[in-house]
């Protein structure tokens, strides 16, 4: 297994490098990521290059048996470069330059920056592309971090106009798609079209706004492709990745991942401003990263200490670092790199703590990483390359997320929060999930959940019809089928393209205030059990072949269906007309999963706060049990199982310590 750290040798004296390398090796480290923010060290002045320090650190690491991942340094263009090209700075919605002082201060559509990026990457690749101790490339760093996808400069305006012309072909087609007759927005020339920047009211034409979001995402993909092309040419034998951020939605990660050999992401479970850390969040983001290419991934940055810039977030408690690492592995990670090796003494991240504290002396976190590394190197060969064997798919759509960002329709409602209501159900029931693109193959899944499929792509809708017809079970919900892909309202009766699949029509609908809910019952005419309610929205349904499985219990629409089931072909399509509360979601999904034949990971019973996940390799299954509670938890094993970490067979009742981890091996049934 790749087990490592993120290291910044340029921030430490050279005399320290061999000390660090020896300590890394002691901790079981076999791979280190370097150089992703070091452009000004590589090219301190225009055209003057210094590779000596990079040659030296790669050699020092190699002498200790450690491979290197090289990051291309394009996230931090040097000051001299920015001074030469002041129009390279991103501009905000009011046209203000977002100046020097942080990172990611460049526009993706600046032609000269693309050329300069290709140049520095080519020089790196020619020097290190065939190096025996360079194992992979990481392109740039965290596309979208700190709101750095959507730029409003003149370069982007011109590029957007070209993008639109390529998409629509003629200006009349664009005017029709966007409905520019509204508010007298008709365009006569491509050059008239602007960006959805600052205006008298924060509401642009929804078609223009969505296309701009698509364009901004495509701009990042084009920029990444520039670097990919160079690396493929100059370093054809080294795999290429990028470190995504799971919940970041400004860029379509499916498109970016399609250019790469494997996906990576950066995991900081305690980086929360206003809420307690929830183990569901990294679990969902691991599953999203798996779904980018439907294969094992790397965690390129794993929290190892307190994150912090101006504020310091929660320090990992004893055992948490190990538990987070095993959670990543359980969801499909084949590599873990801790961020960072040593806490920096200066700069914007001097409070972003690493495995080593500021003084560089190993302590508790180092020892925990060392223990974890020893365990994983001893065991992980059993499941490397293996998948999670999910029977459930949740479809994540960036188009629909962007459209809902533009027009949430209900105050405070967010696409991702809604998607997570389904994920929480599966997580708490120990049911593995793949979170995949709307165009992913669906045939292997027993159940497919499609949250908020507002902008209905005809091909995706056809795939859902075919999936259900062949025996699959699909869940759709409110706002499905209301729009065309151009973000224009669907003229057909809601749910539009899904009307035949769902066997119903939406006769009326309404939005609920953030604190409001409406009682829902699973037995028509009876009082709703405590907590059974719908939030956010209500559709008032008329059934056209579907049958109700839940009913509203109050308001003027009391007695009408709140959830339905419809047989289609050999399969079944369900519809939620409101967002169920957690207890109602559990009641509904328990029935749906039973009908679809979806079952939890068998043979292990566990209390709340204990996560169960699995990976399968050949005829063996590896079941990971993680106690996210601050107190011990009792498990019940239906049969004796081999526990790999301790190397013992366990049976009956088993106690798992707080932050504890167990890994069981058994034959696949």
Describe this structure in words.
α5 (111-128) runs parallel beside α8 (206-234) and α6 packs across α8 (206-234). The chain contains 17 helices and 27 strands. The two termini are 26 Å apart. It has 669 residues and is α/β, with parallel strands linked by helices. α10 (280-293) links the parallel β7 and β8. Helices cover 30% and strands 22% of the residues. The strands form four sheets. The chain has a ten-stranded mixed sheet, with helices on both faces. A nine-stranded parallel sheet has the order 5-4-3-2-1-9-8-7-6. Strands 22, 23, 24, 25, 26 and 27 form a six-stranded antiparallel sheet that branches. It has three domains: 2-150 and 217-382, Glycosidases (TIM Barrel), CATH 3.20.20; 392-596, 3-Layer(aba) Sandwich (Rossmann fold); 604-667, Sandwich (Immunoglobulin-like).
Percent of residues in helices comes to 25-40%
Low-pLDDT runs: none
Instruction: Give the strand order of the largest sheet, numbering strands 1, 2, ... along the chain.
Output: 11-10-12-13-20-19-18-15-16-21
CATH superfamily of the largest domain: Glycosidases
Topology, number of strands:
27
Gross morphology: globular
SSE map:
Blueprint lengths: L1 E5 L10 H10 L4 E4 L4 H4 L9 H12 L3 E5 L7 H6 L26 H18 L5 E5 L15 H15 L2 H8 L27 H29 L5 E2 L1 E2 L8 H6 L5 E4 L12 H14 L3 E7 L16 H11 L2 E7 L24 H16 L12 E4 L2 H9 L8 H14 L4 E4 L10 E4 L7 H12 L3 E5 L21 H4 L1 E8 L5 E5 L11 E3 L1 E7 L3 E6 L8 E8 L2 E6 L2 E2 L1 H15 L7 E2 L4 E8 L2 E8 L5 E11 L4 E9 L4 E7 L2
Parallel strand pairs: 1-2, 1-9, 2-3, 3-4, 4-5, 6-7, 7-8, 8-9, 10-11, 10-12, 12-13, 13-20
Antiparallel strand pairs: 14-17, 15-16, 15-18, 16-21, 18-19, 19-20, 22-25, 23-24, 24-27, 25-26, 25-27
């Amino acid at each position: 297994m790749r087990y490592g750290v993120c290291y910044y040798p340029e921030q430490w004296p050279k005399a320290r490098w061999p000390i660090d390398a020896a300590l890394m090796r002691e901790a079981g480290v076999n791979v280190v990521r370097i150089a992703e923010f070091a452009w000004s060290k590589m090219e301190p002045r225009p055209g003057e290059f210094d590779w000596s320090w990079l040659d030296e650190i790669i050699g020092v690491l190699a002498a200790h048996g450690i491979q290197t991942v090289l990051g291309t340094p394009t996230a931090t263009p040097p000051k001299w470069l920015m001074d030469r090209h002041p129009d390279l700075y991103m501009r905000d919605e009011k046209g203000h330059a977002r100046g020097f002082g942080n990172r990611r201060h460049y526009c993706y559509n600046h032609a000269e920056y693309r050329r300069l990026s290709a140049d520095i990457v080519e020089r790196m690749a020619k020097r290190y592309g065939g190096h025996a101790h360079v194992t992979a490339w990481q392109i740039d760093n965290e596309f979208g971090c700190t709101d750095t996808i959507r730029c409003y400069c003149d370069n982007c305006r011109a590029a957007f106009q070209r993008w639109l012309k390529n998409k629509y072909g003629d200006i009349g087609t664009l005017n029709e798609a966007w409905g520019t007759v509204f508010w007298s927005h008709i365009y006569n020339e491509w050059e008239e079209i602007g960006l959805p920047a600052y205006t008298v009211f924060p509401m642009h034409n929804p078609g223009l706004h969505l296309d701009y979001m698509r364009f901004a995402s495509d701009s990042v993909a084009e920029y990444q492709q520039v670097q990919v092309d160079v690396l493929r040419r100059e370093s054809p034998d080294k795999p290429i990745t990028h470190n995504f951020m799971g919940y970041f939605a400004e860029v379509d990660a499916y498109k970016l991942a399609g250019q790469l050999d494997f996906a990576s992401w950066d995991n900081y479970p305690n980086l929360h401003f206003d809420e307690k850390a929830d183990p569901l969040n990294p679990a969902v983001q691991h599953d999203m990263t798996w779904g980018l290419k439907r294969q094992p991934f790397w965690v390129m940055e794993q929290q190892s200490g307190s994150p912090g810039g101006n504020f310091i977030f929660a320090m990992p408690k004893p055992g948490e670092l190990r538990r987070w690492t095993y959670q990543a592995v359980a969801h499909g990670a084949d590599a873990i790199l801790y961020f960072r090796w040593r806490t920096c003494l200066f700069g914007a991240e001097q409070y972003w703590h690493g495995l080593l504290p500021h003084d560089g002396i190993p302590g508790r976190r180092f020892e925990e990483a060392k223990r974890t590394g020893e365990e994983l190197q001893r065991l992980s060969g059993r499941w490397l390359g293996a998948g999670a064997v999910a029977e459930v798919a949740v479809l994540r759509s960036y188009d629909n997320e962007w459209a809902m960002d533009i027009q949430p329709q209900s105050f405070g409602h967010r696409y991702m929060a809604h998607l997570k209501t389904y994920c929480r159900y599966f997580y708490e029931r120990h049911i593995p999930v793949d979170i995949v693109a709307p165009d992913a193959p669906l045939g292997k899944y027993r159940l497919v959940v499609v949250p908020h499929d507002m902008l209905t792509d005809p091909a995706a809708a056809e795939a859902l019809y075919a999936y259900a017809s062949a025996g699959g079970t699909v869940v759709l919900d409110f706002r499905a089928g209301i729009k065309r892909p151009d973000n224009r309202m669907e003229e057909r009766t809601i749910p539009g393209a899904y009307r035949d699949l769902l066997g119903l029509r939406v006769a009326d609908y309404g939005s609920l205030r953030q604190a409001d809910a409406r009682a829902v019952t699973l037995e028509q005419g009876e009082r709703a059990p405590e907590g059974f309610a719908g939030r956010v929205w209500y559709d008032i349904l008329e059934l056209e072949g579907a049958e109700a499985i839940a009913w509203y219990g109050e308001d003027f629409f009391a007695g009408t269906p709140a959830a339905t089931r419809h047989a289609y072909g050999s399969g079944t399509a369900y519809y939620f007309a409101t967002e169920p509360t957690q207890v109602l979601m559990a009641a509904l999904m328990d029935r749906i999963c039973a009908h679809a034949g979806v079952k939890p990971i068998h043979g292990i019973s566990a209390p709340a706060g204990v996560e169960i996940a699995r990976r399968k390799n050949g005829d063996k299954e590896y079941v990971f049990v993680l106690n996210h509670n601050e107190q011990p938890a009792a498990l019940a094993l239906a049969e004796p199982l081999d526990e790999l970490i301790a190397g013992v067979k366990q049976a009956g009742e088993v106690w798992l310590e707080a932050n504890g981890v167990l890994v069981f091996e058994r034959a696949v049934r």
